[in-house]
Amino acid sequence: MDWLLLVASFCIGIVVGLTGMGGGALMTPALIFFFKVDPLVAISSDLVASAVMKPAGAYVHLRRKTVNLRLVAFLCLGSVPAAFCGVLITRAVSDGEALQSFLQKALGVALLIAALGLIVRAYLRLLERARVRDGKVGPYRSGPPVVVVRPIPTVIVGVLGGLVVGVTSVGSGSLIIITLMALYPGLKAAELVGTDLVQAVPLVASAAISHLLFGDFSLSLTVPMLLGAVPGAFLGAQVSSRAPGGLVRRALSFVLLASSLKLLGVSTANTAIALVLALLIAPPMWMLVRRHHGFPAMSGARWFRRPAREATTPEADAPSDVSG
């Protein structure tokens, strides 16, 4: 038993439980950089572990009826076969060093997109809060989402997301949810997360089966990953309502940016410069964005304005977990 891997998996599981994102985006780079695992082995083992962990969160959202099953069906129509084929694509590239180099660069691009996606997600959530506050939309709904499903764009999203997940193990909880936000702005946060989690179950299962058949799965890696990540995710979910989710997501974006730059071959010095610039520039820019939309520069303070027609509900008054 690799106890260091178990501890790392536990910590990553906590982040997943707190944010709902970051499993493959954090675990796969950790396996590659810190445990010196070949990219294909890391991706294969992480996908198999994710296939075991995903159903628990999906079950919770199904019970709460925060899942659009029609949306799930069209997403899976594209993502399930695409994820299975993603592994065949990696095998078609070539074997040996060329394959590992391809996977490393593909993973780097996926992580960079995921980091940008977190920023887009936070901004869209901020806009949603502003619309509710100003009375432009009604208070937060409960029950099943009411949206008009767009089959063809949804299937295309599934295909693209499935390919990325099959090749890199990243995207089931980060990339796809961003495209869902763009296609279906009427979905609330819980509905987006619930729909994404449920569609991720067959998606990740398909990619995991393909990696079991054609990849390079390692049971010795997967067992400690599961033993650490499952209780970590449970603990993270328990404290998610009290934890500073916005801070966690910003830290996750920072880690994703660092990992993506290293995977893409950026030197350590240039990576450090990019991270320092991000730390110096991003916070004041986000404060300006919050002020522009009528919120305090710092999260946790009272909103600047609250029209009389706004519905005062616990959900409307609660600060967003990503926009802080």
Descriptive notes:
73% of the residues lie in helices and 0% in strands. The chain has 324 residues and is mainly α. It has one domain (60-216, 245-317). Helix 1 (3-19) packs antiparallel against helix 2 (23-33). The longest helix has 37 residues, at 97-133. It is globular. Mean pLDDT is 78; it is low at 302-324.
What's the structural blueprint in terms of helices and strands?
Layout: H1 3-19, H2 23-33, H3 39-64, H4 69-93, H5 97-133, H6 151-168, H7 175-183, H8 189-214, H9 219-239, H10 245-263, H11 268-292, H12 314-317
Helix pairs in contact: 1-2, 1-9, 2-3, 3-8, 3-9, 4-6, 4-8, 5-7, 5-10, 6-7, 10-11
Q: Mind describing the biggest β-sheet?
A: none
Q: In total, how many beta strands?
A: 0
Percent strand: under 5%
Broad structural category: mainly alpha
What descriptors fit this protein?
324 residues; mainly alpha; 12 helices; 0% strand; globular; disordered C terminus
State the gist of this model.
This protein has helices at 3-19, 23-33, 39-64, 69-93, 97-133, 151-168, 175-183, 189-214, 219-239, 245-263, 268-292, 314-317.
